[in-house]
Amino acid sequence: MAKITSPTAAFGWTRLATLAAIAAVALYRIAPHLPNLTPVGAMFVLGGLYLGRNLAWMAAPFAGLIVSDTVLNLAYDGRPIHAGRVFDYAAFLVVGLAARWMADKPLAARIGMVVAAPVLFFLISNFGVWAGGSMYPRTAQGLMDCYTLAVPFFRGTLLGDWLFAGAGMLALEGLRAREDRMQAVAA
What we know:
By secondary structure, this protein is an all-alpha fold. The protein contains seven helices and no strands.
């Protein structure tokens, strides 16, 4: 007789909780919040760490990002897409891929990914602002000015990503450990 399992058992509570966390971050981003305290990087860190091995997992954080970007952009200036976000999206792609690479590493490495994610985003996205050439001259001094003037915004990014990714990771690690114990008992 075949053993019947529920769809949640096959997919895993950790993955479902990760998807819920990504959706919550996307909704939080649309709601009124403190300036620049948006944990978008946390969506990509949690997705990379907990959603699976193949690249299909990237669909969830990118969907959250694109939907929330579209809502915010339409409210801001009526345009759904801003071409200037290309470097931001590239930065999130790098963060997500780095998190995926860290998913099977020891806990300290995964915590290091939480710490590094907003730094990676800061470096890549602000390089894109500088490379765009409309705000800063394309000189070494222009690049330094771009990074220096972005520091006040970086504080919110750090706090948002560290708080949300850290809390999410703590909860998801606990859930993953519980699932592992349950599977060991069932085997």
